Amino acid sequence: MDPAKNDSSTVCHVVAMPFPGRGHINPMMNLCKLLASRRPAHILVSFVITEEWLSFIGSDPKPDNIRFVTVPNVIPSEIGRGKDFPGFIEAVYTKMKAPFEDLLDRLEPPVTAIATDTYLVWAVGVGNRRNIPVVSLWPMSATVFSVFHHFELLERNGHFPAEASERGDELVDYIPGVSPIRFSDLSTIVNGDGRRTLHQALEAVSLASNAQYLLFTSVHELEARVIDNLKAKFPFPVYAVGPTIPYFELQNNASVGHKEVNYLQWLDYQPTSVVPLSIGGFWTHCGWNSTLEAVFAGVPMLTFPIFWDQVPNSKQIVEDWKAGWRVKKDLVAENLVTRGEISELLKRFMDQKCKEGNEVRQAVKELQETCQIAIAKGGSSERNLDALIRGISEHTPR
């Protein structure tokens, strides 16, 4: 049944507005598919993308109760945007709001809720002015969100501004809910190219407090302390609904993590920056989507972070979860890793008799089981999704 054809008073119409980038669009679409599958006759999702992005993903499979709607190409092309990433972000911040509001005026049935990427700082204000509940989806780890949320503690403790070359080994052990982390593991966020977009991340996290819901793409049990701490701080629901990867379309592969799984087919469906190492693990840059995919698949990781949140993600994988090894040891010096070093590391990593390797494989297998429990009937992610649907469905559109 097409919910758009139902009586508008019975339809929960969610307008989803992702940040226009693959690493943001994917988790938002996966969230929408989860919502749509829970109540297919009740929920309608209008998924907002630029006309250019429609040409990229318009033919991708999706449920009938998710429809693409577009805004004009008012931002630089996705192709080559990396040449001026701060300029791209500035265009998203300043040029997308007006066409989005114009689209809201034209959409039918009336909008029940707006699900937006936290980085779209103007979307919360749009929803609040129109009395439409806003669901803010944070596309990185809850740990990184908490670092930004408590950023004044870095300033108070002299870790901002600061240079990793001088203070990299110092522990940042004062952020509530976050396990102690070396300052060097935060260096790509607060220094270098990361410094150029830091103010925008801080603004996004700050304005998330004006939303009516905050969602994490994580699994609660993976980051329980930090998520529980944030839940206690905010006056509105905070839900972990992950992993927001297409597991609902992968579960037909009953042997996730088994040697017969076709990882290349999986990666073709959900593009990431991970490289499958036969059946032994992933070489990954530690993007959060890639991290969640590897954990869900029960595959250990060789971490090679490059930028922004990837470095603290690597720390979380290796030190907190014990689910991988670092490829590059010295993150401050940014030294290259030689062919010989990579070869020796891979031999040890793939050696089924290696004690350290087997410990990693056991740890990631336990994480995989945690994810499976979270998405199963009565699991934390399933309960949180249902609670979110109940909450937004109670709102009466104007």
Automatic annotation (TrEMBL):
Origin species: Morella rubra (Chinese bayberry)
Family matches, as InterPro entries: UDP_glucos_trans
Upper classification of the organism: Eukaryota, Viridiplantae, Streptophyta, Embryophyta, Tracheophyta
Protein keywords: Glycosyltransferase, Transferase
Similarity comment: family membership: Belongs to the UDP-glycosyltransferase family.
GO MF term (any one): quercetin 3-O-glucosyltransferase activity
Entry keyword annotation includes Transferase: yes
Keyword flag Transferase: yes
Annotated transmembrane regions: none
Protein name (record): UDP-glycosyltransferase 87A2
